[in-house]
Known about the structure:
GO molecular function: electron transfer activity; heme binding; iron ion binding
Low-confidence stretches: 2-19, 31-35
Mean pLDDT: 85
Largest sheet: none
Order of helices and strands: HHHHHHHHHH
CATH superfamily of the largest domain: Cytochrome c-like domain
Main location: periplasm
Pfam family, one: Cytochrome_CBB3
Radius of gyration: 17 Å
Helix content: 40-55%
Subcellular location: Periplasm
Amino acid sequence: MAGTDRPSRPGTRSGPHPFGLAAMVGLALAAGPIAAQDLFEETKEQCAGCHGVGDMVALEGAPALGGIDAYYALLQLVAFREGDRENEIMNSMVADMSDDDLRAASDWIAGLDRPTPPEEEPDAARMEAGAKLADANRCGSCHGAEYLGGSQMPPLRNQHEDYILKSLQDYKAERRIGARAAMVEIATPLSDDDMATLAYYFAHLPG
């Protein structure tokens, strides 16, 4: 799930799929035991490189994958494949993947180790400000009290700072909406400093 979402372009589908992503994911999950996942196996190392799995360094703007629930990962992969979530790299990567490929990818993602915080000591004042902003915006009500996400929401704890910041910026600019408008409503009143502080806070929480 590399990078961040792009603005919609003429001729592309940016709204929810007419059958609903959850229904499509349900069909993928109901497909039975994984039979063929050749395309994902061919691209797994590229996924690991872009997202910084293990000792690899992630590309700028690419999210950490560790700690993401398998169902949530599958939901996003289906959205990328069907064009309901737009990112040039990801749309291209999964365009020809079968349901089995996407299920294999989501299971692989769910088995990765959670990301760790940056090694440097976080700035206490920024962490305090970030905690207040997170509480004021009730981030934990959806992303969990420890910001570890779940089957319907991504984890925020120790996610890459640049990815969180770009995501908030895209929500505020309505470049990324997805199936829910809640994040657009939350991000709209945030200042640039607020978004930077939240991104710093989540990225630097204790592991």
